[in-house]
Amino acid sequence: MLLSQEKPKIVSANNYYQTLKLDGLGKSAAAILESKNLTDKDKWLDLINLYDGNPLWLNIIADAVEDLCDRNVAQFLSCPSVYLGDLEPILEIIFQRLSELEKQVILWIASQETAVNISNTPPDFPLSHSDFWKAIQSLKRRSLVTKKDNLFAILAVMKQYIISNYLH
Fold first, then answer.
1. Separation CA 40–CA 72 (nearest Å)
2. pLDDT value at position 19?
3. 97 vs 144: CA distance, rounded Å
4. CB 23 within 8 A of CB 29
5. pLDDT at position 2
């Protein structure tokens, strides 16, 4: 069994493997918040969604809510931007593992106001359409890009990290 944030690229003549994508813990992540005795249960789902239901990220952020806001989730969520705190070193490792091609694409997506239609890449974009799609597919495999209604966006946490560290 292999556990990874990234879907492996497996090329095999046999079918002795299966992958299962877990999209975060969703509502069941509330157990993490409950274990930290956080308040404002009606805001827990907002916090869970903001950090994509990632159990590691939620544990780290729950500690921040406890330390900075006396366990008050509503106060924590009132911050005008996504708080990263101790997530930054983790996000830096993830970002540094990206290829130069992937970095170019994720930086471009992060700079966009809304999710993007990959069929409409800007004419001045320095990559070929094929390279652009290759990078999008790889970022999606790495669970850094999500697709909804044929539009692609990066995770809110990663977007905030990129804006803070690379696009300011």
1. 6
2. 60
3. 12
4. no
5. 47
Beta bridge partners of 69: none
Structure tokens at 71: 């366990």
pTM (2 d.p.): 0.82
Amino acid at 16: Y
Q: State the Cα–Cα distance between residues 102 and 140, nearest whole angstrom.
A: 10
Task: Give the chain as a DSSP string.
Answer: ----SS------SS-----------GGGGHHHHHHTT-B-GGGHHHHHHHTTT-HHHHHHHHHHHHHHHTTBHHHHHTSSS---GGGHHHHHHHHHTS-HHHHHHHHHHHTSSS-B-TTS--TT-SS-HHHHHHHHHHHHHTTSEEEETTEEEE-HHHHHHHHHHT--
Please answer whether residues 89 and 54 qualify as being in contact, where contact means their C-beta atoms are separated by less than 8 angstroms: no
Q: What is the pLDDT of residues 108-154, one digit of tens each?
A: 999 999 999 998 777 788 889 899 999 999 999 998 999 999 999 99
The least confident of 14-23, 73-82, 114-123, 134-143 is 14-23
